[in-house]
Amino acid sequence: MEDGSINLPPGFFFSPTDEELVLHFLFCKASLIPCHPNIIPELHSSHLDPWELNGKALFSGNQYYFFSKVNENRTTENGYWKEIGMTEPILSTVDKKVGMKKYLVFHIGEAPQDTETNWVMQEYHICSSGFDMASYRSARRRRKHDQSWSKWVLCRVYEKRRCEEGVKCYSDDEDENGSELSWLDEFYLRLDDDLEEIGMSS
User: Fold this and answer.
1) Phi/psi at 190 (nearest 5 deg)?
2) Predicted TM-score of the model (pTM)
3) Residue 109 and residue 115 in contact, taking contact as beta carbons nearer than 8 Å
4) Rounded to 5 degrees, what angle do the CA atoms 179, 198, 180 make?
5) What topology does CATH give the domain 18-171?
6) What pLDDT tens digit does each residue of the chain (202 aa) get?
7) What molecular functions are annotated in GO for this chain (predicted)?
């Protein structure tokens, strides 16, 4: 981190579930509970285009992570983040709703003359009804006048791959069961495709 970039130590890979992002990171940020190690930085989504996140946001795999303020202006110098109307509930292991995830796509230029890009943002919000709010309000680390509970979101940004022509896809690299593919799985899938092409051409 000497060059100011946010990176994990060699051998570590940051790959949390949606539930872990809400309960172990976003909740700590919103409730003022220290998170150790505090590896996710705080950024203004309106100050940076998605391709400028490198070295500023936490980078792992092909994804960038950072905290931002709720309802912050989503317009950058070169474009804006547009909600696409997709919202997914985030459930705990006991099927209790603890948050929700919104999808946004980055557009270059101004509407209606804008251009949609492959950059996608997943915006994580806390669902306060999923927590025992009374116990957390009385926590020593939470100031009585503090209103930060609803001020923060956790953002995950990535550049999606091209889907079939004419078909839009906004989820990150996932298999049919919804779990993320590792780079090794992707390598073997590509290898299978290459072998099939070789067999068809011979």
Assistant:
1) -65, -40
2) 0.71
3) yes
4) 5
5) 2.170.150
6) 444 456 667 777 888 999 999 998 998 888 877 776 788 999 988 889 999 999 999 998 899 999 998 876 789 999 999 999 889 999 988 888 999 999 999 999 998 899 999 999 999 999 866 555 444 444 434 444 344 456 899 999 999 876 645 445 665 544 444 444 444 455 556 666 655 655 555 5
7) DNA binding
